[in-house]
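quick one, two chains, predict together pls
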Amino acid sequence: MSERIPLTLGRFRFAVQLAMLVLTVWGAAFVGSYVADRLSTALPALSCAYDNSTGAHCVLVPLQHQMHHRVGEVLAKTGQLTLTMFLPVAMTVLSFFAFFFVLNKAFCGWICPLGTVQEIINRVGRRFNLPLHTLSARGTGRVRPVKWLAVLLLILGLPVLAGLGVLSHGWGNPFCDVCPSRLATTLLSGSTEQLGLRDDPLAFTLGAFGNALFGFVIVGALAIRQPFCRICPMLGWNALFQRLSPLRLVKRQHDKCEQCGICTRACPMDIPEIAREHGRRAFAEDCTLCGRCVEYCPDDGVIQLKWGPLRLFASSREYYKRRVKGESPDGVVKPLRFVRKPAAPARSGGDAS
Amino acid sequence: MPALFRRLPLPSPSLPLLLALLLGDVQAQPQQPPTPAAAALAGHDHAHGPDAGKGARPPAAPRAWTRYPLLQVQAGGERGSVNVRALNLPDASLRLLAPESTAESPVTAPATTLGPAGALLRPPSGQGNYHWLSARSETPEAVTVAGTAHYFPNPGPSPTGLLLLRKSELEIVPQPLPREHAAYRESEKWNFLVRFNGQALAGKDVVLETESGSRVRATTNSVGMATVVFPRDTRDTPAAGSHRPAAARFVLAVEHEADGRRYLTAFNHVYRKDPDRERSLGAGAGFLLLGMLGALPLLRRRAGENADATPPGAGHV
C-alpha cells in the first residue's frame, strides 16, 4: 500500500488539515467546554467563536471587539489613553504572535478550517473535471488590495467608529458578520442558527451579504482554488507579521524559472512571484506556506521551506516525478490503483490498468 | 446525531459570545432599569457607547415567583463587586467560592450573613470568571441551600474543577455550565448532576420552575444525571442597550430526606429566548442560494479552457 500511496508533503498537509478541522470545529470535546480551556483566543486562523464546540478562537474576534470596546470607547472618553486601551490589545497581539512565530502563515495553509473546506471542495471539482479558473498576474494584483481593505475597514476601522459612537453598535464586529467561516464551522457543528437572519435592518443586511458570500465561496471553490483566502483579512493580518517568524519560503535564483512556471500553476493562490522572483520577494504577501510550490518545483533545492537555519523541505526532481504521478500541479488527482496491475501481454506490451 | 454532538451544548452561539474574548472588565450601563433576569446577568452583558462603564444599576426589588430558595445577583456599586440577595431563604449564610478552589484549599470570600438588603461581595482572588455562590439556612430538622454560578469578567481557570467540588450535602451540579457568554436557552437540553454526600442520587425527581410560570419535572438516571429541557416561554424583550436575546430566571430544585433531616437544594440561573425565534432561517437560506447561483457561471467551461484539466508540464518529466 505504501508503494501505491506514497507519503508526500501534500498528503501530510492534508492529514494535518483534517486533524485541525476537527480541532477547530469540534475541539471543545477534547480541550474542554469553557473559553478558559481553549487552545487560544487569538489563533491566527479562522477558528470561529460562534461555533460553541470549537477548540480555539480566531484572533480577529478579540481584535474587532477591542477596537470597538477598548480603543473606540476609550478614545471617546479622552484622557484614558492608557493601559485600559492598550493592554488588552497588546495581550491579544502577543498571544497571537506566540502561535504565529512558530508556524507563520502556515496557519492559513495548514490549520484554517475554512481553507481546508475550500480545498476539499476544490478537490471535488477536480475529481469531476470541472473547469479550473486561475488568476493572471494582473488579476492577482487587482485582488490583493481587497484583503488590506478588509483589515483596515472590517477589523480596525468600523469597530473603532462603532466604539466612538459614530456608527451604531451593529458595526462592532463587521467581519464576523460576513465571515464564511462562521457559517462553515457552525453548520459543520450541527447548528443552523448562524444561517438565520435577524430582523434588525443592519444585521439583516450584513447577514444576507455574509450568507450570499458563503454561497458564492462554496460553489466557486469548485472552480477556483481558495476563493475566499485571496480576500481574507486574516491573510492580510498574517502578512503584516510574516517576516517576523523563522518559518519561511526560500527560493534561489535559477535560470529555468521564467520558462517553467509550474510552481505558480501549483500555487492555490496563483502567486506569480514564486516563478518570477527569488529571495525575499518570492515569499509573497499571499503565500499561505502550503508548500505546493516546493513539491512541484522540478529542480533540486531551488525552493525550500525553512525554519530558521533548519531546512524542513526542499524541492527535488525525484520527488517532483513521484508527485505528478499522483496529482497534477493544478490539483487533478489521478485515480488510486488498488488493484494489482496484471502482467503485460508479451505480444502487445500495452498497459492493461 | 453523532454522540459527539450530543455531548456539547450545541445550539447556543450568539453574537455576544464574542465578548468573552475581552481581556479585562467593562461594566454594564443600561439605558433603563433592567428586567430581573437581565439584572441577574449584569456580569455578562456589556454596554456600548461613550457612556459605558459609568456605574452600576440600582438593585431591582425581589419578586416572588417560586416557593424555592434562590439567589439574586446584581452588579454592586463598586467595580467588580456584586450585590447578592436571597429569596425564600431567611437568615442564610452566604459563601462565594473561586474557580481556583480545591477540596484541600478552597478560595472563598469571607462568610457573610444575608440581611434584607443583601450582601456586597467581590471575587476573593480577582481571578477567574465563573464563581459559585451558595446560601445556606440550617435547623435541626432541615437544611436549605440555594446556589448559583456568577460570571465575573476576569481571565482565569475554567470552572470544571469548581463544579465538581463538594459544596453541601445535597447538591445540584450543572454539567456543564453554559460556556462564558453563552447561555441556557429555550428548547435546549442541559444536564444536572444530583449528589448527596458526594454520591450520585438515582431516580430522584428534580423540578424546574421558571419566572414565566412553567413547571417541568425530570428524574435522575442511574448516574444521578437529570436532563432538563428549557421551556419556550420567555416573553420579555431585551433590555435597551443590550444586544442579547430576552432572558428569564429559572430555579431547579431537589428534595431529599436522610437521617430524619430534610434537605432542599436549589440552583437558579437565567435562560434566554431561542434565537431562532428572532431569526429567519428561510431568508438566510435564500441569500445562501443566491450566492450559490451567482457562482454557477464559474462552473461553465470557457472555449479552449483546460478541457482535460491536465496542465502543461505535468507528467512531462
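Chain B has a mean pLDDT of 77.
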